């Protein structure tokens, strides 16, 4: 037996939730604000998505598969060199984070910076996602060392942490009003860390414009 249709566009409702959580953060977004933005009743929210925390987890997953959330993973998968991948990540972060078509910055970086004690799991959830990115960065850099793109003794832990810190900083600067041009300059300067490792010139492999 088929259930009753929900009576609302789930994708559109989820898109509205993404926008609200991204703009206001987890703690700053109430269930009543969510239902108003999503155009549904509280009962429909709980029936379709579960509670607020479950909705947020689906929001983060959907965001992570969207063009604005997946650009880092795509660069790492598509660029033939690690240098090209990180240069592209920083270049695209400079384009995406201040884009007025959506809230500034990155949802997974800024959505749970301050949460109540009872919502500590949300903060931990996003922290684990960010730390997972650092691990992916580290692995790509390790492969670059093995392939001769970086010196064999390059400190991949420090370099991965550095790029993660730059990206998170770019997100916050965008939320503080930094322009694309300002962030592009940060990206160019950040890639200088690569040349300090002793190999690749900044113009090689599709450097930051």
TrEMBL record:
One of its GO terms (molecular function) is DNA binding. Keywords: DNA-binding, Transcription, Transcription regulation. Residues 7-67 form the HTH tetR-type domain. Pfam families: TetR_C_13, TetR_N. Residues 30-49 bind DNA. The keyword Transmembrane does not apply. Signal peptide: none annotated. PANTHER family: HTH-TYPE TRANSCRIPTIONAL REGULATOR YJDC, TRANSCRIPTIONAL REGULATORY PROTEIN. This is TetR/AcrR family transcriptional regulator. It comes from Lentzea tibetensis.
